[in-house]
Amino acid sequence: MSSAGSSRVTMAEVARRCGVSVMTVSYCYNQPDRVAPDTLRRVREVAAELGYRGPDPTARSLRRRHNGAIGVVLGEHLAYAFEDPQARRFLAGVAEVCRERGSGLNLIPTTGTGEDVERVRSASVDGYILWTTVDADPVLAVVSGLGKPVAIHGGPAVPGASVVGIDNRASARELAARTFPGARRPAVVSFPFDRDRRPRLETGPDAESVAFPVTRERLLGIFDHCADPSRLPVAVVARNDREEAATTVDELLGKCEPDAVIAMSDQLAFAVLDAARRRGLCVPVDIAVAGWDDGPDADRAGLTTITQSLFDQGRDCALIALGERWPSRGAEWTATVRTSTR
Questions:
Q1: Distance from C-alpha of 188 to C-alpha of 227, rounded to nearest angstrom
Q2: CA torsion, ordered 167, 330, 312, 129, to nearest 10 deg
Q3: pLDDT tens, residue by residue, 249-278
Q4: What pLDDT digit, counting tens, does each position of 46-66 carry?
Q5: Is it the case that residue 6 has pLDDT exceeding 50?
Q6: CA 258, 260, 300 angle in degrees (round to 5)?
Q7: 78-102 b/e with 16+ CB inside 10 Å = b?
Q8: How confident is the model at residue 28 (pLDDT cuts 50, 70, 90)?
Q9: What's the chain's average pLDDT?
Q10: Would strands 69-73 and 233-236 be described as parallel, antiparallel, or unpaired?
Q11: How far, in Å, CA of 59 to CA of 76, rounded?
Q12: How far is residue 1's CA from residue 22's CA, in Å, rounded to a whole number?
């Protein structure tokens, strides 16, 4: 007999001690509702006495070809999942589906290096969710070629994967129509263009060359509304962070003196409102401001914004990654007009 706590105790040994079949012991751990209460209690007591800790999860997943987890590829450092308000709401939606379905959640940060591919490929997950990434990300080819369901939030679109998100170009055109009328010096505060994440101020950048699909589509939608996009100032930030964007936004207001600004998130719009207050500008008389997402603080700030549910989009992505059918349609959005625009 193996001593208590021994790592060599097997399911077969527990079955012999209890006088039941190996299948019955298996049911005690995997489908306990199929076992009589007295038998279940006896098996658990003997297992505890022998030090048997249950079926090996790795071996079990190999047999079933099922890992019981979703992999979320962030394309960011791990802390981003907890710091960024958009990411938090999105992941909350993913987590709710995982709770409902009894699935695990594996966060997989990537950095744009050669190690990303193997880190993603080796993850023990049943399906993948990719937070928005660049068109040339090598991880895209890996996840779409593993034969597992893949959901990509915001794009890019690749064969074998489903894209979940709003129509960013259409929403950007609508937001520009609500924000720029009457403005003589419109401007944009933009998400990063590519993975170098270099903050800078550009005038009339080439939107088609932007590597992040969400940034590209929003910029193209704003350009659709502008008579001369080649003269439009665009402040590019390193991250979707209110405090980190302050320096770049101050540069925009100082050099270009815009009287209307569209920011690509509520957080970046708040950075514009902060800078306007520091300069004694009146919103929206001196400067109109709009953003995206309509988070909890947007209503309190009177911010005109594109309302979308990142929580619901997280749920959609999780259902796709779990292999459940989901309608192929764009996520819902609407323009919510408040006092920050004219």
A1: 15
A2: -90
A3: 999 999 999 999 999 999 999 999 999 999
A4: 998 998 877 765 555 545 456
A5: no
A6: 125
A7: eebbeebbbbbbbbebbbebbeeee
A8: confident
A9: 91
A10: unpaired
A11: 31
A12: 17
Q: Which CATH class is domain 11-55?
A: mainly alpha
Q: Which fold has domain 69-164?
A: Rossmann fold (3.40.50)
CB proximity list for 61: less than 8 A, separation 6 or greater: 67, 68, 124
At 53, list the tokens.
Answer: 């800790």
Q: Which residue do the tokens 């925009």 mark?
A: 252
CATH 3.40.50.2300 residue window(s) in the chain: 69-164, 168-307
φ, ψ at 91 (rounded to 5°): -70, -30
Instruction: Identify whether the C-beta of residue 242 lies closer than 8 Å to the C-beta of residue 274.
Output: yes
pTM for the model stands at 0.81
The residue written with tokens 């505890």 in the block is 48
H or E stretch covering 67: none
- The verdict on domain 168-307 having CATH code 3.40.50.720 is no
Q: Which residues contact 307 (CB under 8 A, 6 or more apart)?
A: 293, 294, 333, 334, 335, 336
**188-213 per-position pLDDT tens digit:** 999 999 999 999 999 999 999 999 99
